[in-house]
Amino acid sequence: MRCPYCRFPDSRVVDSREQDEGQVIRRRRACPECGRRFTTVEEATLAVIKRSGVTEPFSRQKVVNGVRRACQGRPVDEAALAILAQTVEEAIRATGVAEVPSDEVGLAILGPLRELDEVAYLRFASVYQDFSSADDFEKAIGELRAVHRERAARRSGQPGGTG
Prior knowledge:
elongated, alpha+beta, 47% helix, 3-stranded antiparallel beta sheet
């Protein structure tokens, strides 16, 4: 690592610390030439492969912007959108893959969005999954109802969710 002060081409690592569950490493370095210390930050990059084949860095802001459109007019605040974007990024990073197709990002959004707001989930899913008829909406709504029945059954202690 080149020293930012004297531009000497090498430096010594004095201390390393992980942040964000190991996704970021901060290193304290010392220059053997001028003796000054500086900090570097190393972050694992995450890239998204678009349908066109273009690769671009993952962006939480792009996730927020896409979900915000689906949440238009819904009681969802910016903090909830930021948490959703962080959850999506963590889920994608947990796969251990450096490059993910954009459709996997969309899939990673669907689960947390369903928990956040079901109407926004249906809006997002209708675009993302390319709904072409009312039947597609009915199927998605049926799946949401099944999840509700299952949760209600678990709360009441009934097996299965047919209650």
